[in-house]
Amino acid sequence: MPIEHASVVLDRLVKVFAGSGRDVVAVNDVTLSIQPGELVTLLGPSGCGKTTALRMVAGFEAPTSGKVFIGGRDVTNIPPNLRNTAMVFQSYALFPHMTVRENIGYGLRFRDIARSDARQKVERIMELVGLSGLGDRSPNQLSGGQQQRVALARALVVEPRVLLFDEPLSNLDAKLREQMRGEIRRIQKSLSITAVYVTHDQNEAMSISDRVVVMRDGQIEQVGTPEDIYAKPSTRFVADFVGKVNFVPVSIVESGEEETSVTIFGRQMTIPKVSYNPGETHLAVVRPEELKLIPPDNGFVHGEVTSRTYLGSVVEYDLALPGGLTLMAIEYNPKARPPFEVGDVAGVYFDLDKLHLLKGDKA
Amino acid sequence: MEENQSKRFNRWIEAKHELAMVCRNPMLLATILLVSALLIVFVIYPIFQVIRVSLKPDGEFSLDTYRYLLSQWWLRQTFVNSVVLGVIVATLGTIVGFTFAYALNRGDIPWKKFFRLMAQLPIISPPFMFCLSVILLLGRNGIITKQLLGLKNFDIYGLKGLVLVQTMGMFPIAFMVLDGVLQAINPDLEEGALNLGASKAKVFWTVTVPLCVPGIASSWLLVFVTSLADFANPVVISGKFDVLSVQAYFQFTGLYNMPRGSAVAILLLIPAMLAFVIERYWVSRKSYVTVTGKPTSYRIIGPSKATKGALLAVCGVVSGIILLFYITVIAGAFVKLWGINWSFTLDHFKYAWDVGKDSVRSTLVLSAWATPITGLLGMVIAFLLVRTRFPGKNILGFTSMLAFAVPGTVVGIGYILAFNQPPLLLTGTAAIIVLCFIFREMPVAIEAGVASLIQIDPSIEEASTNLGADTSYTFRCITMPLVRPALIAGLSYSFVRSMTAVSAVIFLVSARWNHLTSLIYAQTEIMRLGAASVLSLFLIIIVVVIFGLMRVFLGEPVTRVRVGN
Ligand SMILES: Nc1ncnc2c1ncn2[C@@H]1O[C@H](COP(=O)(O)OP(=O)(O)OP(=O)(O)O)[C@@H](O)[C@H]1O
Ligand SMILES: [Mg+2]
């Protein structure tokens, strides 16, 4: 199915809702450029403006200022029904008085397509999303997962220039959610449709996206590939939001040609060169799985194990360091006999070669 | 200060954006403009005309008319009478309505279905019917007063007769409000209090009643407005107890004193508007009851035996009176000369058919026009109010609901004054009556529409738009099918109201376009009570038959479509 690839550009988008008490700035100066065929997620906590941004792309909300471009064309003043975007709603928003087939075929009524072609398209898309044989059911005779597929099929069949998802999987149980996100990704890739995907679930965002946009209070915190966002978060907020994290203060002592000498936990050490000035202190982002627990004498620092949680595939440790700092460590493939029990003292070690320091957040 | 300014500034921007959104959607813009124009012409302008005529008796601005009204003690008395009547009926009606609602929801009494029917019957009863029965029962030749008790000088005309018929006719308003409230109060609250050791009486007074207070206040105000605006009952049975609606009618159509008629109408409008605004913007906001949509588990704290007996007695007596009214009218239709010659006859039917067949036809035609337009327009306005944003929406909402508050007398006078010259020369036509029906009955259609729209997930309509449908297509193919039950409820209601309208339509009927109710009034006036009874029966039969047909062809209005997931 050939679909015209379209880029999506948000240009300094602002949306202010005039509330009865106080105005809400839902989206605050968001600029973002999405390549044709790319799947970009908007990730952020509740109320950060993800839905509002998405609705401005669909045309349901008019921006207070700024512009939206789809396929290079300014669509800011184009009504939603003429934008040729297709949205998959959180509530699915299926038409309860129509059958599955009528639901899926609905969007084709507004496109120049012969009736027989339309029927074929509907059948083909039902096969693609795994709904064959359910065409004559009414939506409320379907399971949650099947309803989700109908919503997806209904959006896909019109061959939209952009697919929009607003937390499409949040009504499904965990297992189905993983399966569906895999399918959405597969279909989106095979058709190479440009897609904007809103979620507040970091795992979903990581697993499905080409790029992730982390939002906070209506603004973009960081844009990057899932790997970038996880390994090189640009702010403390992002680091915290996309997974469990330890922040370790690192003081810059002096920078040489290739290395920088720093103090960590009161010890002088060298790390690959960073561009910060001597005297500054920055937070290093150390993921719990990077943190190794070793016998107390060998680590950078040692601390007391305050809790140990066995989760099957991993064991989580909490450590209290002498200075009052706490650290979290995760051990994969836990051994039958744990090396440390609660109350034991353990040494802490991590790889200094890949240390990522936060820019703005001076400790 | 500064923040205030920026807020205003943003509100201004918001308005501008709403306007921009609307302008991008020509169909929506056209609809909003059309609806606004209709409301201005058919709701605002007539009221404005009444005010204008009352203030410009001779083309010059002057307060003379009002000065005159206030200087005449009998006119002052008329005002007082109306208010006193309203207060008494509102109080009694609310008490009876509450008793019924409490008995049916918490009382554990037998024959619930029957009592519920009795508490709703008066709403579809033709106007004049109750006072007709009261005259037949308690009037000068009344079967009770003259035949049974042999009273010579008993006079039911006046305040006591009015209180009786209005209470019987209007307590259902209070019942419906309070029935909804009691249904929505979770019995867990009451049971909880009982568990904590409160006595049943204490639970009633400290839990149930306080939770009902906003509902009680609402009922009281609604019955008050209805009593104030009532024309049919007072014009027949008020005797020397003069009230505003009747006085306005006589000043206007009897004495051709348009400024004075208008001014009296304004005196009627003021308390009615006041009560309406208090109800809408104050009382109904205080409601503690939230409708959860979850059916509450139906456990009833059984009241004590004595309470149960009292509830049953009140409901029984009231229902008995209503039944008696019906039986009396039916009997009246077959008796030669009530109180004098009791022999059986079908003469009244023949006579009534001769004088009434044209009216029956025209009433049906008028209602048939008004009903679907009202339903549709109401739904369109409900859609605008719930689903769209545009500057001035609140004003549009208020205006469309205004007809609830404006007494029919004011509307009738307003329509005569507003539409008696080109380009809108409508007096004497069917159009003026149909339009009057539409704009008077629309609020109920709107309310039904709003109530059902807010239950439907808006993303269903957004999905339609998103897939390429424009607003009008979405409205026709998505919204309308989903709100069908509400639409049918709106249609049924507006049909009944068109069939039973009096207070406004009495000003607007003409020889060619007469209304059954106005014919019943004429027959009652010349004391052809037998014929009036027959015509009332016609009206009841038509209403019931058409109601039934609507059910059969359009479906049950009560069943809810399951929407969303
Ligand atoms: N129609 C509206 N009117 C007023 N305020 C609104 C409206 N829609 C959203 N907001 C406000 O704008 C802010 C952003 O809302 P938005 O729905 O975009 O958040 P979100 O990131 O999608 O959150 P969630 O994850 O909870 O869905 C919130 O503070 C919200 O209250
Ligand atoms: Mg959201």
What features would you describe in this structure?
Chain A has 363 residues and is α+β, with helices and mostly antiparallel strands. Chain A folds into two domains: 8-241, P-loop containing nucleotide triphosphate hydrolases (Rossmann fold), CATH 3.40.50; 246-362, OB fold (Dihydrolipoamide Acetyltransferase, E2P), CATH 2.40.50. Chain A has helices spanning 50-58, 100-105, 115-129, 144-156, 174-191, 202-208, 226-231, 236-241; strands at 8-17, 24-34, 39-43, 65-70, 73-74, 85-88, 162-166, 194-199, 211-216, 219-224, 246-255, 259-264, 267-272, 281-286, 292-294, 301-310, 314-320, 326-332, 345-349, 356-362. Chain B starts with a helix and ends in an 11-residue tail after the last helix. Chain B folds into two domains: 20-55 and 346-565, MetI-like (MetI-like fold), CATH 1.10.3720.10; 63-337, MetI-like fold. Chain B is globular and about 75 Å long. The chains are: A alpha+beta (363), B mainly alpha (565). The interface between A and B is large, with 41 and 33 residues. The complex binds adenosine-5'-triphosphate and magnesium ion. The site of magnesium ion has 3 residues of chain A, from helix 1.
Number of domains of chain A: 2
Order of helices and strands of chain A: EEEHEEEHHHEHEHEEHHEEEEEEEEEE
- CATH homologous superfamily (4th level) name of the largest domain in chain A: P-loop containing nucleotide triphosphate hydrolases
Low-confidence stretches of chain B: 289-298, 558-565
The quaternary organization reads as heterodimer
CATH architecture verdict of the largest domain in chain A? 3-Layer(aba) Sandwich
